[in-house]
């Protein structure tokens, strides 16, 4: 079974066997999408356990080796001490910190093994050449244990051989410093918490099995079912990288993971309580994106780029107490001042990584306000070589967004990105894009004539939805960290809801193990979603879109609702197809009684008038000195009406009030309002309110003013003409 080392399980390595190993290095094969042979979980590769001192690598390694009936090698005990003829602590004391790392790395460079479980030392990952060598023939599993747990273990063991620990340098500092090296090398992360070694060993085996079975993490359309797949779905499997690029399924449905979302245990969530937002995002996204699509180390770089310096608050998505049992999840600290930044600072980098290098891509976006500037900003931060092959066209309702939102979208135009105002509403823009994607004649023409494919960056794209799960989970963990609740205590969540993406992300967080009790949908006067949740009837007949002070939820067709209905209908794609065909052709559909019952167990809904929205803004400012934006105010009004006050409620503050200055000034009862957006922001800043005026928005308006943009009629042929012209100008 094993071609290099013929050891009995758990037997220690002798000096003779070490000499044999060092003299007969194995040939390392390139690591591909499937790591292991079909006959064994391990094959000729090694499982390499990595983590801080005290993570349990040695004990876990022995249990894993026993379960796999394969050799077990502990680098500290079986390699270093045997090579040096002295203990690791003696060697460290003898040569000092820097020389120790070099000697340790040299020993690793001489080491070769096959088909074994290898437990690294806590400091091995700090030697780059040594890690590159050992990683070539194995899969590196990071045993991620919370720092507080590690410190407690090391203190009880009174360990004295920790590399880097010295007078003036705390153990916590050493452990924190090492994390950067662990993140660089691992292929798989296993959250350990306070688990016993037997449980951790099972997690390691499950994680390695998942890594091997990348072909199982596929996506299906909401309009297909397990018993009734389309011909295309039978012949093609869609992976994460595919759905990021394609956006919309060929049958008009939305992509969802075929095996559902991963589940976290309570212990795993608790292990993230002390983590930063970036660390939480990395862990959650790693579970949702297979490393065959995006390797964990590359994903970590993408997450750090997205949420590092681009957000004005170090906590990224802080939770602020408002009053009573109400808390605000502030989602407006990104560069364009809305919750859309969370997805659109991340998604462009995911997209650029996933697309093939042989094709150009034009991204089509429809926005009711905030998406436009967020997607323009996000894609403008790509590397120049990526911007040469990725262009973007943003369609928005010309008269259906706030003046500041429009100024921001126009000001955010770049050399590869344009904004087009459409003389219609958001629903037309969104429907038009969906029709363009399913127009095979047009998309085929673009591919053949210009070598350009279309892609979507709206909330229908799975890569837009996925990052939103993170901040709902993070908000709950922050409440636990602040001592407001203990883990396991329920919370309610209230979200201003239009396209249902943010609400769906909260529900997904609940499915993954966050104790969310009720998801409360808050609508404005375009309350078709509220009526649907209350009655089970989705009825657009006779409905016309009403312009409101909360334009981002001025939506009648909630696209992401389709994903939720597919879920509660037990993935019955035929039923979903029937419902949405009825909506398209007849303007309405009605849920079956049993499905309505399921829906109402998860969701409650209410709506708020413009007058009540402005009154809430005034009332909250008068009592707290805090200014809500118009969308958050809608959620606040609905939360006041529907919450039962038996648990905390987290209200999603989805945008900064600066974006809606005229409505805010009206709510604050300012008699005369200057029509210049920059003047409006200066007036608001004079209030010295919380939160302060948004830095990014202010800078954008200062630099760009109100530039030029294209405006077109609500006509499909006109939109397609604009698309072809952009492609000619940018790619040809």
Describe the fold and architecture.
By secondary structure, the chain is an alpha/beta fold. It has a domain at 46-213: 3-Layer(aba) Sandwich (Rossmann fold), CATH 3.40.50. Helix content is 47%, strand content 13%. It has 33 helices and 20 strands. A hairpin with a 2-residue loop joins β8 (319-323) and β9 (326-330).
Summarize this structure as a short list of keywords or feature phrases.
732 residues, Rossmann fold, 20 strands, globular, amino-acid biosynthesis, THNS1 protein, TrpB-like_PALP_sf, pyridoxal phosphate binding
Give a short summary of the structure.
Its cofactor is pyridoxal 5'-phosphate. By secondary structure, the protein is an alpha/beta fold. The protein is 47% helix and 13% strand.
Global structural class: alpha/beta
Question: Strand order across the biggest sheet?
Answer: 8-9-19-14-15-18
Helix content: 40-55%
Distance between the terminal alpha carbons, to the nearest Å? 56 Å
According to DSSP, the number of beta strands is 20
What would you call the shape?
A: globular
Sequence stretches where pLDDT stays below 50 over 5 or more residues: 1-39
Tell me the number of helical segments per DSSP (H or I, 4 or more residues long).
33
Based on CA atoms alone, the radius of gyration comes out at 28 Å
The average pLDDT is 88
- In oligomeric terms, what are we looking at? single chain
Strand content: 5-15%
For the sheet with most strands, the description reads:
6 strands, mixed
CATH H-level homologous superfamily name of one domain = P-loop containing nucleotide triphosphate hydrolases
CATH fold group of one domain? Rossmann fold
User: What is the CATH domain class of one domain?
Assistant: Alpha Beta
In the CATH classification, which architecture of one domain applies?
Answer: 3-Layer(aba) Sandwich
């Amino acid at each position: 079974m094993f071609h290099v080392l013929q050891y009995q399980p758990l037997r220690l390595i002798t000096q003779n066997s070490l000499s044999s190993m060092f003299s007969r290095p194995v040939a390392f094969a390139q690591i591909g999408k499937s790591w292991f042979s079909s006959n064994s979980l391990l094959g000729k590769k090694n499982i390499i356990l990595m983590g801080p001192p005290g993570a349990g690598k040695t004990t876990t390694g022995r249990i894993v080796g026993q379960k796999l009936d394969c050799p077990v090698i502990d680098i500290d005990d079986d390699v270093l001490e045997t090579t040096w003829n002295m203990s690791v602590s003696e060697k460290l004391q003898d040569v000092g910190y820097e020389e120790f790392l070099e000697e340790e790395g040299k020993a690793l460079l001489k080491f070769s093994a096959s088909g074994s479980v290898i437990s690294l030392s806590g400091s091995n990952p700090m030697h780059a050449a040594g890690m590159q060598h050992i990683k070539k023939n194995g899969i590196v599993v990071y045993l991620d244990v919370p720092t507080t747990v590690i410190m407690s273990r090391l203190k009880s063991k009174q360990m004295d051989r920790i590399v880097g620990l010295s007078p003036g340098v705390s153990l916590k500092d050493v452990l924190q410093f090492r994390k950067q090296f662990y993140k660089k090398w691992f292929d798989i992360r296993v959250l350990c918490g306070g688990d016993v070694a037997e449980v951790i060993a099972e997690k390691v085996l499950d994680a390695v099995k998942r890594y091997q079975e990348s072909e199982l993490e596929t996506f299906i359309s909401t309009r297909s079912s397990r018993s009734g797949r389309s011909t295309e779905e039978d012949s093609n499997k869609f992976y994460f990288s595919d759905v990021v690029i394609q956006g919309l399924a060929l049958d008009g449905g939305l992509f969802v993971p075929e095996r559902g979302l991963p589940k976290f245990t309570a212990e795993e969530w608790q292990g993230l309580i002390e983590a930063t937002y970036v660390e939480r995002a990395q862990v959650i996204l790693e579970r949702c994106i297979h490393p065959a699509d995006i390797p964990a180390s590359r994903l970590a770089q993408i997450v750090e780029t997205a949420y590092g310096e681009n957000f004005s608050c170090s906590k990224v998505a802080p939770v602020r107490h408002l009053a009573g049992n109400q808390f605000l999840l502030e989602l407006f600290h990104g560069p364009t001042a809305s919750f859309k930044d969370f997805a659109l600072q991340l998604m462009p980098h995911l997209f650029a990584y996933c697309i093939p290098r042989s094709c150009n891509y034009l991204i089509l976006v429809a926005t009711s306000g905030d998406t436009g500037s967020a997607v323009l900003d996000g894609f403008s931060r790509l590397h120049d070589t990526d911007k040469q092959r990725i262009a973007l066209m943003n369609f928005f309702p010309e008269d259906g967004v706030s003046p500041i939102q429009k100024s921001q979208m126009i000001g955010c135009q770049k050399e590869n990105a344009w904004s087009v105002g459409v003389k219609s509403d958001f629903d037309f823009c969104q429907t038009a894009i969906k029709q363009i994607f399913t127009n095979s004649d047009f998309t085929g023409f673009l591919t053949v004539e210009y070598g350009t494919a279309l892609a979507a960056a709206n909330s229908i794209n799975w890569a837009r939805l996925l990052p939103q799960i993170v901040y709902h989970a993070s908000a709950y963990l922050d409440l636990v960290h602040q001592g407001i609740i203990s883990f396991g205590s329920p919370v309610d969540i209230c979200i201003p809801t239009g396209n249902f993406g943010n609400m769906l992300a909260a529900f997904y967080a609940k499915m993954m193990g966050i104790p969310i009790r009720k998801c409360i949908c808050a609508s404005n006067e375009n309350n078709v979603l509220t009526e649907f949740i209350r009655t089970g009837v989705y009825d657009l007949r006779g409905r016309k879109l009403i312009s409101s002070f909360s334009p981002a939820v001025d939506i009648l067709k909630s696209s992401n609702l389709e994903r939720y209905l597919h879920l509660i209908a037990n993935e019955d794609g035929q039923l979903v197809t029937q419902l949405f065909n009825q909506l398209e052709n007849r303007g309405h559909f009605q849920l079956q009684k049993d499905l309505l019952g399921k829906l109402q167990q998860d969701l409650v809904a209410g709506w708020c008038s413009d007058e009540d929205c402005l009154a809430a803004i005034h009332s909250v400012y008068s009592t707290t000195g805090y200014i809500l934006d118009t969308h958050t105010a809608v959620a606040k009004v609905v939360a006041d009406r529907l919450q039962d006050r038996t648990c905390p409620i987290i209200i999603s503050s989805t945008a900064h009030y600066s974006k809606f200055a005229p409505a805010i000034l009206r709510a604050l009862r300012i008699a005369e309002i200057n029509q210049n957006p920059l003047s409006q922001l200066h007036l608001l800043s004079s209030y010295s309110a919380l939160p302060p005026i948004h830095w990014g928005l202010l800078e954008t308006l200062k630099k760009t003013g109100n530039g030029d943009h294209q405006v077109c009629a609500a006509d499909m042929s006109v939109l397609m003409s604009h698309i072809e012209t952009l492609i000619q100008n940018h790619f040809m």
